[in-house]
């Protein structure tokens, strides 16, 4: 036990570079060896003349090998001077850090050696040798178990884990199509069956060669749009810049064989998706729900899609299964094409160069999935695994699966008991809700590799914050976004949640996707598609955007950052009733309209309108217990500073408030010690506390989620003091809040309120109004 303890203590004391050297060479670096005081005898050897010749010959050979055709091709790449200088600075900084650490280690070893004396040196040497042996055993055991010591805080620096051990097994360049899989003759099957079935949408989309005139047309001319009514999606708007596309029609019945799914997916999809099928769907032998059928019809046509009715409580899992099927189908087809071309290149006659095997991008990642929480990534990976497993007996090989479950899974005991929250809250915040993560997934035939390095991954699953920390900001030394250069499918799921996190991360991602890489990353340029070499990747990228609501910021991303040449499809249904019909207390609602010249000026106009016309009416002590609901944190800070300046009796609660401050503010507000309560929307989104003691409500701006309006209004019934007649609710709105207003009061009332410039008074009696 003493030897093993000594080995563990030695392993913990080693730096990262010392551990790496110990793992590779089985011994510590000579720099850290203890130097004895006795001088060693030097031995002088005379070299013959032949040795000089041999060394000169070897030098010349290496010089010839360095200049090859591949290196000439790489020399044509433009390397950024910033990256070179950054590498030099990183090397110099690491060298300085090593020197300082070495000096501290040497000083410490000298002090210990002087204190213990000469006889202890021999014991130290023997104990150190035994400790290094046990350290080697521990390192080899950890490698065998698939663990990484860099992620353990006991071993010093915490670094992100990436699977390097399975690199060769999942390399597209060195693998070939297995004959057992039955896909080696996929191209022949497609060509033979092309007479009966239409062309594969994947090949039709990726093989189309655009001309410069078409690219110029898409970047200059506006889009033409058309509308149609679908049975399940409702009002669907098609828009495109190129020639008028044939309008899609929602198929009532879909045969799986006609969807051009990759071979294993035809058999696994009905089994995986049967949990969502109703009795009617099973009766007609359909493997899709009505919603999935229409969504996949758009996805499989490789058009951009915006679906703003994705609800975590009702249809969230249906949507997730549909886009996972489409993404996996795309990856399997792309990889099968590369592997089959590898076999053709291997079997071709030497000296025959062909340009027909352009089947790759500048980097390997093809699909990028943006999801808000780790639980979402966990469910996606489980769906991908289940879609690849043909039967229960034939399980696919998934590397690092145990580690993935440990980092992305959740412990049921961590959830605090007896917390009453709405059902939609429980659905959104289920499982592991960490929002800082990223993981690469490589898929090759019958196996899956989790934690693959980004440049060896087919699918990247990340949160906006997780991908932002990799992309970095301008001026940072360590930043990388080359892996986004050849993304062919971008999936942004639950986009409404990012409005509650940080929408700037999404905008930052859209600015750095499909840009030319700064480095080659070992790509074979003879296999790269011309669309990638021409920097036209963004015109081929399909963007799938799912949200629970329609918001101007989400609409802006879909309209300004989606350039797919096949066009865009957006679902635009208008709400008929609105969430005001779910208010169960008798409450007069006063909607006060403010005027603004532009979208940018509405922020200042709202603030001025509030302090000049609304706030003076609530300064009287009679209008106590007033809650002011503020959706924007910037507006909240502005109001808080103004209230402090005017010395008003108020207490604030925001998403950054500590638990003690929240409890104190709620108690003061309930007892009437504070007249005003500033309340942010993001706090309500993440906590959903019931605020007691409200008598007067002011919506500084309409809420982002329409059901928050009825939730806040229904908080008035939490305190029953018999003062129902004094309850009031005031809402500020402008003509730029049309979407939010329609979600609250319905489309008919919205049209009337926007036409009239007068204040609107509504009285809800507790029934559907």
From TrEMBL:
<dbReference type="InterPro" id="IPR053940">
    <property type="entry name" value="UTP25_NTPase-like"/>
</dbReference>
<comment type="subunit">
    <text>Interacts with CAPN3; the interaction is required for CAPN3 translocation to the nucleolus.</text>
</comment>
<dbReference type="GO" id="GO:0048568">
    <property type="term" value="P:embryonic organ development"/>
</dbReference>
<dbReference type="GO" id="GO:0032040">
    <property type="term" value="C:small-subunit processome"/>
</dbReference>
<keyword id="KW-0597">Phosphoprotein</keyword>
<keyword id="KW-0217">Developmental protein</keyword>
<dbReference type="InterPro" id="IPR010678">
    <property type="entry name" value="UTP25"/>
</dbReference>
<feature type="region of interest" description="Disordered">
    <location>
        <begin position="1"/>
        <end position="204"/>
    </location>
</feature>
<dbReference type="GO" id="GO:0031648">
    <property type="term" value="P:protein destabilization"/>
</dbReference>
<dbReference type="InterPro" id="IPR027417">
    <property type="entry name" value="P-loop_NTPase"/>
</dbReference>
<feature type="domain" description="UTP25 NTP hydrolase-like">
    <location>
        <begin position="302"/>
        <end position="569"/>
    </location>
</feature>
<dbReference type="GO" id="GO:0030163">
    <property type="term" value="P:protein catabolic process"/>
</dbReference>
<dbReference type="GO" id="GO:0000462">
    <property type="term" value="P:maturation of SSU-rRNA from tricistronic rRNA transcript (SSU-rRNA, 5.8S rRNA, LSU-rRNA)"/>
</dbReference>
<comment type="function">
    <text>Component of the ribosomal small subunit processome for the biogenesis of ribosomes, functions in pre-ribosomal RNA (pre-rRNA) processing. Essential for embryonic development in part through the regulation of p53 pathway. Controls the expansion growth of digestive organs and liver. Also involved in the sympathetic neuronal development. Mediates, with CAPN3, the proteasome-independent degradation of p53/TP53.</text>
</comment>
<dbReference type="InterPro" id="IPR053939">
    <property type="entry name" value="UTP25_C"/>
</dbReference>
<dbReference type="Pfam" id="PF06862">
    <property type="entry name" value="Utp25_C"/>
</dbReference>
<feature type="compositionally biased region" description="Basic and acidic residues">
    <location>
        <begin position="151"/>
        <end position="169"/>
    </location>
</feature>
<protein>
    <recommendedName>
        <fullName>U3 small nucleolar RNA-associated protein 25 homolog</fullName>
    </recommendedName>
</protein>
<dbReference type="GO" id="GO:0034511">
    <property type="term" value="F:U3 snoRNA binding"/>
</dbReference>
<dbReference type="GO" id="GO:1902570">
    <property type="term" value="P:protein localization to nucleolus"/>
</dbReference>
<feature type="compositionally biased region" description="Polar residues">
    <location>
        <begin position="137"/>
        <end position="150"/>
    </location>
</feature>
<comment type="similarity">
    <text>Belongs to the UTP25 family.</text>
</comment>
<keyword id="KW-0539">Nucleus</keyword>
<feature type="domain" description="UTP25 C-terminal">
    <location>
        <begin position="579"/>
        <end position="763"/>
    </location>
</feature>
<feature type="compositionally biased region" description="Basic and acidic residues">
    <location>
        <begin position="349"/>
        <end position="360"/>
    </location>
</feature>
<dbReference type="GO" id="GO:0019843">
    <property type="term" value="F:rRNA binding"/>
</dbReference>
<feature type="region of interest" description="Disordered">
    <location>
        <begin position="339"/>
        <end position="360"/>
    </location>
</feature>
<feature type="compositionally biased region" description="Basic and acidic residues">
    <location>
        <begin position="23"/>
        <end position="37"/>
    </location>
</feature>
<feature type="compositionally biased region" description="Acidic residues">
    <location>
        <begin position="83"/>
        <end position="118"/>
    </location>
</feature>
<dbReference type="Pfam" id="PF22916">
    <property type="entry name" value="UTP25_NTPase-like"/>
</dbReference>
